[in-house]
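Lab meeting, action items carried over

1. Structure of the four-component assembly. Owner: GW. Status: complete.
Input record:
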Amino acid sequence: MILLLKRQCQLQQIQALVSRLEFMGFTTAIIEQGSHPAIAILSGLEGDVMTEHFIEFPEVEKVLPFTNKYKLVGRDVKNTKTVINIKGVEIGGKDLAIMAGPCAIESEQQIDSIAEAVKAKGANILRGGAFKPRTSPYDFQGLGESGLRFLQEAAQRHGLLCVSEVMDVNDVACAEKYVDILQIGSRNMHNFALLKAVGRSKRPVLLKRGLCATYHEFLLAAEYIMSEGNPNVIFCERGIRTFETYTRNTLDLAAVPVIQALSHLPIIVDPSHGTGIRHLVAPMATAAIALKADGLMVEVHTDPDKSLSDAKQTISPAMFGELMQTVNAIHAVCGSAQCAVE
Amino acid sequence: MILLLKRQCQLQQIQALVSRLEFMGFTTAIIEQGSHPAIAILSGLEGDVMTEHFIEFPEVEKVLPFTNKYKLVGRDVKNTKTVINIKGVEIGGKDLAIMAGPCAIESEQQIDSIAEAVKAKGANILRGGAFKPRTSPYDFQGLGESGLRFLQEAAQRHGLLCVSEVMDVNDVACAEKYVDILQIGSRNMHNFALLKAVGRSKRPVLLKRGLCATYHEFLLAAEYIMSEGNPNVIFCERGIRTFETYTRNTLDLAAVPVIQALSHLPIIVDPSHGTGIRHLVAPMATAAIALKADGLMVEVHTDPDKSLSDAKQTISPAMFGELMQTVNAIHAVCGSAQCAVE
Amino acid sequence: MILLLKRQCQLQQIQALVSRLEFMGFTTAIIEQGSHPAIAILSGLEGDVMTEHFIEFPEVEKVLPFTNKYKLVGRDVKNTKTVINIKGVEIGGKDLAIMAGPCAIESEQQIDSIAEAVKAKGANILRGGAFKPRTSPYDFQGLGESGLRFLQEAAQRHGLLCVSEVMDVNDVACAEKYVDILQIGSRNMHNFALLKAVGRSKRPVLLKRGLCATYHEFLLAAEYIMSEGNPNVIFCERGIRTFETYTRNTLDLAAVPVIQALSHLPIIVDPSHGTGIRHLVAPMATAAIALKADGLMVEVHTDPDKSLSDAKQTISPAMFGELMQTVNAIHAVCGSAQCAVE
Amino acid sequence: MILLLKRQCQLQQIQALVSRLEFMGFTTAIIEQGSHPAIAILSGLEGDVMTEHFIEFPEVEKVLPFTNKYKLVGRDVKNTKTVINIKGVEIGGKDLAIMAGPCAIESEQQIDSIAEAVKAKGANILRGGAFKPRTSPYDFQGLGESGLRFLQEAAQRHGLLCVSEVMDVNDVACAEKYVDILQIGSRNMHNFALLKAVGRSKRPVLLKRGLCATYHEFLLAAEYIMSEGNPNVIFCERGIRTFETYTRNTLDLAAVPVIQALSHLPIIVDPSHGTGIRHLVAPMATAAIALKADGLMVEVHTDPDKSLSDAKQTISPAMFGELMQTVNAIHAVCGSAQCAVE
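Predicted assembly:
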């Protein structure tokens, strides 16, 4: 249920109403609805709660039912696209969020030289894994907190933001100290405890689509994060699992226009995991931008073949530079998704 | 096995050698290898046939083993991209092959008005089904031969080529009289008898990817056609079946760079069947062209909602016109796949 | 639409009514509905045909709408299970239909010795491919008509029925002369021209599920065959294509109870193609019989490792003998699906 | 690397050697290899560690390389099947582990009456969810710790063991106090932090297959648990996600013989989630037992239609009773997998 508030309502009044509703046992979230402020009632509606209970509050103009299962992530709740501003870098706006870097942070020197290289070619966010989800317990599991420190220092030194994956509820507090964006990996898209934990963080969250998650489940995973109070979620399409084995995954680019039609949140594309093959990274990145994706996540390494993980899908700074040229040319023609919404 | 012939060999000499080889029990095909003429030995190599048997022919410069399972469709057999010229329209060259029209031919008037509309917006090939593959035997099955006649007349009247699907070996001879390109639908990609039948035709063949066909199987289906003597095959990526049900299929755009890397044949994309949703057709078409696809196949109807089949994925001439504008803008930036190969 | 006829209607009256309806432009089929004779109107109902048009015929007791898309294969059209009697062997009844033999007929001697072996172990139907659907045009394509003759002679010599695949509309007439059951392979489940062709045959049809066909599509493929007049269709679950690559396919055993709940036609299981791995054939066959499948199709070769195709999934007569022992023990406990329906 | 120890080695000697190896920086596990005790070196082997370093220890008879990626779960590491004994109930032995109960624990009374009912029909382990993984954050999330207490009390009152899912690393300590078996749900099969956490528990772990996990990934998830020291892992096949939407999932019964061939650990089957349809639960349970699965997990509710979650796939105690009769009849014929291994 959505309480559409009168247009002139002040933030203070809204917050007072929220307090009263929470005291009555409802879970709520402050949202916007068209040009009106509004409050979404997320739970507590079981039993005989009626529209009449709410319409009597003087701040409330109208009571609207939820028209779908997305109370917070849906387009019907918020018409304008969400733009996430992190230290001046806007994600979901006119510019592209270009996240680039190695699969795993291997050493202080490695991450620094890669940071320098990707910055030079046009990246604005440095990626790098410190906690690595590995199918086998005997594969390299990442450098942990010291890796995060190397990442942060390299990013700051070269004027980049940084993003890294958290795999465990107990790593969130640690990761928050170092990174600008917390990443939830594909294998954890259904890890509801972790989704809630990052939902309580102040950091924006990059949410990767699960290996076999439908669009509906992808949106509801974001709903988990938002329902805990974190409004800054960035979707990332990174390929789904199909019968085709030539590519590592099948990059489902239709996710870009579908998610942008269903949700106000930004979506980026990861062509590295989405294909698993070096020579497909640039073409698929280009196609993603032609689809008005809000950005890219690309695995780049100064010596791709010696990369400790994902070597086959990792590109060199030179290849990344060429990719950025085509991407920028396409972006100039197609623009961002901002306009597509109207 | 490939017999690389001496560069100065004349067509007459090559044909004489082919006759001799066929007389000896081998199946062969004349191919090109780099700048050399060459003959592929397709079968008859069982038992103790040795390289020495061939090297003695004076026309033969070198005997090469097949390096993979694609004897005719593979890049290693022919380095230059195949350009199919049909009455002046080139498929696989610098320009785009834009096939547009209704799912099914419904009447003489319907196909004529659609032909006029799509021609005006930039299509060069008219599509329309006369024999319809329908999951249920009780659904509309198409107008048959009279439909093909309406298609041909509409195409000629408006200066378009035309393409239509054949579903049965016994329909090939009939269809050849009317259409410029024979289409093999997804459901028949593994219908080997039909593949061989169109392989014996003089008409180019548009081969749609099967619902759950791997790239490897897709290439081998083209190999079936080529091994019967028809060198003009056009691949068409049209979506695969996955767990996602929001879209009708998952359009696997990575097929474009993958097939272009493995084969010298052109590939186009069908975003209508690939998504099944009207508002996704234009974005996915744009992405396909950004990936240097050689063309598009799009379902267009002057009254989409009244389309006898596939109404949900069919767009109006106006939407098609907008699509073409973006597609042309992207094509101007990205160019065709010609250059990508070097 | 179903015309429920009066119980006392004689066959002659029913046939006269059918003639009249067909003359009026309807396509029809004689079916049974509970204990009543009935006529299904398959097509011709477009426009303003009304229930009243039919209720006036004196033979008609009631006009029923179709409750689903299966006019002929559905349980709601015919409550009692279809039992197909071929020269005394009943398929769909109390006994099991055990189809065994090589993937491909390789020689007269080979098929004869396998026929002898599988008969001795309890098979009642000999399988063997004469027209082979091969992914590559360069793989062994089968012996053709002479293979069918070897198959028929071996079957007759050892007191077995025989079944073989047809791949082309033009092969049906030839195959009918030799085999008791015409098989439609997975790759042709959507080959509607072929489905119609075997629908006009007098021979029962073994219909294999397509690689990525849903239950709904599987049922409608049988509907295609039945709508042409052939009431004797046997379903065969043979595995679907999924992301798992360890097994050749994922054998979807739930198809057995699902299809038996939705249709009155028998269903058997092919654990050889369903798994692709020799040591899984017997366990999965056992599970199929525990699920009350009406039979099995198993690839058996006297020298499995030298089998010209499908060697990895082919078992020896000795393994087949052990399989039959367990299968018979399970069948004695579980019984056939006959009872399950009530 | 595996250090095969001399047959006469005493446990004390082995433990002393382990301490030394761990002091040297290796991670190890005590395993058995044929009839020999052995120590697996799990990590620390990077760099220039050589076979010679180990062969000098007097306890070591031979140094073996790992032949595959499963250092602890594989058949090659341990030939005899693992039997997990929990308070007298053996899982992986001759008897079946029958886990039955509601999807979610709803109240003290509900779980008690279901416990009584399933015990009477032959279950030996009570299931019930206290922490529920729900796709939407607004669905019922379970009773938490008080649910676990109700579960434990109901189980003890009726002479049953109990199993419940943990979703968060931080819930493991709490759950251990109440349940006999910790369950890892499908959505967490790739939650490596959680796998490690239950790997450090003394409780056996029921590991459900991920929605799109391959057998290989399934085995490696168990490897994660075992590599932390917990040898008692029970696999559970519960259906995979495919294109088929009629059933909730596609129950991949081939997993039973495949996993039993590759691993010494027991495997059970969940036909409730595996099909999502009430009338398919009993047939698929029967098939699983015909395949020598080591047990079942079935959703049972005294009032299935009022079940707070998974109502459609939940069966009544009466249906469960009939299921058990068939299952026991089949088990009497087929026996357990013990013998199958020889």
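2. GW to write a short summary for the group page. Key points so far: The interface with chain C takes residues 212, 241-243, 245 of chain A (CB under 8 Å). DSSP finds twelve helices and 14 strands in chain A.
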